[in-house]
Design a protein that fits this description.
This is DUF8070 domain-containing protein. The structure is a single chain. The chain is mainly α. It contains five helices and no strands.
Length: 112
């Protein structure tokens, strides 16, 4: 797995987008209730992003296996960041993790 490919989406979604969302909500509302709702939305996005959506279409894999080209399927795992276009599930996962983390930071500031 190429961990360097995950740096850009983590920075853009978890740090920048989620921090901007929580920061705007904190400045506009200055309410713990709003931050709790954002935390709930973040948890929901994490579940939707990390959850298994069902069986992935494997038409290319099955055809390669049936024709005896077993070596073709090696290395074709669907890894986050393995393609130039990041999946929606990965974006939801990173953004949701950022919402949860930044909301906890905002709540810590409100509660002190």
């Amino acid at each position: 797995m190429d961990w360097n490919a995950l740096v850009a989406p983590v920075v853009s979604y978890t740090l920048v987008a989620a921090a901007a969302t929580v920061g705007v909500a904190y400045l506009v509302f200055s309410s713990g209730l709003t931050l709790l709702l954002l935390a709930g939305a973040g948890v929901l996005l994490v579940v939707l992003g990390a959850g298994e959506a069902g069986a992935a279409p494997a038409s290319g894999f099955g055809m390669a296996e049936d024709s005896g080209m077993g070596g073709l399927t090696e290395g074709m795992e669907m890894l986050p960041g393995s393609s130039s276009d990041l999946s929606v599930r990965a974006k939801m996962l990173f953004y949701g993790l950022g919402l949860v983390a930044w909301t906890l930071a905002g709540l810590a500031v409100l509660l002190r």
